[in-house]
TrEMBL record:
It comes from Acinetobacter puyangensis. Residues 66-197 form the Peptidase C39 domain. It holds the Pfam family Peptidase_C39. One of its GO terms (molecular function) is peptidase activity. The lineage of its organism: Bacteria, Pseudomonadati, Pseudomonadota, Gammaproteobacteria, Moraxellales. Signal peptide: none annotated. It comes from the Bacteria. This is Peptidase C39 domain-containing protein. One of its GO terms (biological process) is proteolysis. GO terms for cellular component: membrane.
Length: 278
């Protein structure tokens, strides 16, 4: 028993000494490549740390997430000020400023902030700003992020317009993160075609965190999601593709073929259907 214990201790010591153990930044994983990928092998060709970012973190990249159901206005303004004007505010600091310089009684009454409240606070910070009416083509032509109100899912909501690419409008939503809309759909939900803009004299020297990036373009349309919703990698491609097509397009109807032995009874039918939200 003593020999077994000593042997286990030596094996553990050799195993731990063979790896470089050091503190690594959060999000670090180790990528290991074996010497021969065609067979199981403990001989490593190389082993190196790789930094990864969780999708949930990237979803809110550059966005100040709203802390309350009614605070989309303060969160959107904080996002615009931090990401575009280069400030370093918290949502609470912005809320305090909006309450101090805005129409306090009306804010309490409606439990939300207005574009006028935003203008007064931004003016107190020393920036020029204003609310405007515009057409979709005017919004697309802008070279800067702006706050836009939308009427979405039965609610009034503030988001930050980031940019336009290939027929899609990209916004920083303080509730949902970095999302996009089909341009036609955005035109439908854009509330009163209004926007709130901050004017910066040194815009060219300002680092715009809200500028569109490659990560913003990684959207998947509904047809693709439907096609691969039932993918299981243990099956060959033709197998799971057939299952997905059948499961996604199956419905039960009455058999209307007079010569069928099942005439007048329920039967399953498969139809290829594709749809895409606006």
């Amino acid at each position: 028993m003593l020999l077994i214990t000593l042997g286990s201790a030596l094996i553990y010591q050799f195993a731990t000494d063979s790896f470089e153990v050091a503190d690594q930044p959060a999000g670090t994983v180790y990528y290991t490549e074996v010497l021969d990928g065609r067979q199981n092998s403990y001989t490593r060709n190389h082993r190196e740390p790789v930094q990864i970012t969780p999708a949930a973190v990237d979803q809110f990249r550059g966005i100040v997430r709203q802390a309350y159901d009614y605070s989309c206005g303060s969160a959107a303004l904080t996002t615009l000020l931090n990401g575009y004007a280069g400030t370093n505010l918290t949502e609470k600091q912005t809320m305090d400023g909006l309450l101090r310089y805005g129409e306090y009684a009306r804010i309490i009454e409606r439990r939300s902030f207005s574009l006028l409240d935003m203008k007064r606070f931004v003016t107190a910070l020393g920036y020029s700003s204003g609310g405007y009416r515009a057409e979709l083509k005017d919004l697309i032509a802008l070279d800067k992020p702006v706050i836009v109100p939308i009427a979405y899912a039965g609610f009034k909501h503030f988001v930050v317009y980031k940019g336009h690419s290939e027929g899609r409008i990209y916004v920083a939503d303080p509730a949902l993160g970095n999302i996009s809309f089909n341009a036609d759909r955005f035109a439908e939900i854009w509330d009163n075609n209004t926007l709130f803009m901050i004017e910066l004299a040194d815009y060219q020297q300002t680092k715009n965190v809200l500028a569109l990036s490659e990560n913003d373009m990684r959207h998947v349309d509904d047809a693709t999601v439907n096609k691969f919703a039932f993918v299981n990698l243990q099956y060959p491609e033709h197998k799971f593709e057939k299952l997905a097509d059948n499961a996604a397009t199956m419905r039960r109807v009455l058999d209307a073929v007079p010569n069928s032995t099942n005439y007048g009874n329920s039967t399953d039918t498969y139809m290829r259907m594709y749809y895409k939200r606006k």
